């Protein structure tokens, strides 16, 4: 079976105030895989994902999506390319309902007909993932784990098939973490591509197909998760 790269980083670099956050990073992300990006704090993981998500633009190198070079001028452009990011801090309006939050993030979503269509589409998405969400529930009433599910469903509703998770379990309970990992496995089975940024190596090895290790803004290496251990990853991370 042919493996298709869906994202390629080629010599990517990014500097802030003259300091390199990323430097000469090159690796590929395969379609329908969970690709973890690990490293110590300050290794450049989030910066690299922000480049893919359109929050920043690279100063050097190039990013290819589905074989084509991209130059996103903002997150909206990345969304149009099917790329979405679940941040550590959720971007939801607490007093709005789940449905209102999802429609708020979309273009041409106002009026009765779009809301009826949105309900049908969201119900179908939740059924495929085995999720139960009350679309009329105010976000402020939801526990953290469910708020994160809203962010995920919001990206799927917008057509996202390359999903970035930045330290997604940092605010979750162990039970919520287990549920998230199972949800990611479900999305992988449905052909979604997932980039998983974390420093929790046990979770990384439980969910990832491939792991790229960054240290001080540079790529140390990319390995198959099934062929490595936590100890080997730590050695790559800290040298």
Oligomer: single chain
Whole-number mean pLDDT = 92
Measured by DSSP, the beta-strand proportion falls in 25-35%
Nearest-angstrom radius of gyration?
18 Å
Q: Main beta sheet: strand number and arrangement?
A: 6 strands, mixed
H/E element sequence = EEEHEEHEHHHEHEHEEH
Write the layout of secondary structure elements.
Elements: E1 5-16, E2 19-30, E3 34-38, H1 45-52, E4 60-65, E5 68-70, H2 75-80, E6 83-86, H3 98-104, H4 112-129, H5 144-157, E7 162-166, H6 174-189, E8 193-197, H7 201-207, E9 210-215, E10 218-224, H8 230-238
Parallel strand pairs: 3-8, 3-9, 6-7, 7-8
Antiparallel strand pairs: 1-2, 1-4, 4-5, 9-10
Describe the structure.
There is one protein chain. The protein has 239 residues and is α/β, with parallel strands linked by helices. Helices cover 36% and strands 27% of the residues. The chain is built from eight helices and ten strands. A six-stranded mixed sheet has the order 6-7-8-3-9-10, sandwiched between helices. A four-stranded antiparallel sheet has the order 2-1-4-5, covered by helices on one side.
């Amino acid at each position: 079976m042919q493996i298709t790269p869906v994202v390629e980083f080629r010599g990517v670099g990014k500097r802030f105030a003259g300091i390199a956050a990323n430097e000469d990073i090159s690796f590929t992300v395969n379609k329908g895989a969970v690709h973890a990006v690990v490293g110590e704090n300050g290794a450049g993981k989030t910066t690299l994902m922000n480049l893919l998500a359109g929050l920043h633009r690279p100063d050097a190198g190039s990013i290819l999506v589905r074989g084509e070079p991209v130059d996103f001028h903002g997150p909206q452009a990345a969304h149009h390319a099917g790329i979405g990011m679940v941040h550590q801090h959720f971007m939801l309006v607490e007093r709005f309902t789940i449905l209102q939050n999802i429609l708020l993030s979309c273009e041409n979503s106002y009026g009765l007909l779009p809301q009826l269509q949105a309900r049908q589409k969201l119900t179908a998405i939740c059924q495929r993932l085995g999720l139960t969400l009350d679309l009329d529930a105010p976000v402020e009433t939801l526990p953290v784990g469910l708020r994160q599910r809203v962010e995920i469903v919001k990206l799927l509703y917008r057509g996202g098939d390359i999903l970035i998770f930045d330290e997604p379990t940092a605010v979750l309970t162990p039970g919520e973490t287990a549920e998230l990992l199972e949800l990611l496995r479900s999305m992988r089975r449905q052909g979604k591509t997932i980039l998983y940024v974390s420093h929790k190596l046990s979770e990384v090895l439980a969910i990832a197909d491939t792991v790229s290790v960054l240290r001080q803004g540079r790529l140390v290496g990319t390995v198959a998760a099934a062929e490595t251990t936590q100890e080997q990853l730590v050695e790559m991370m800290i040298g």
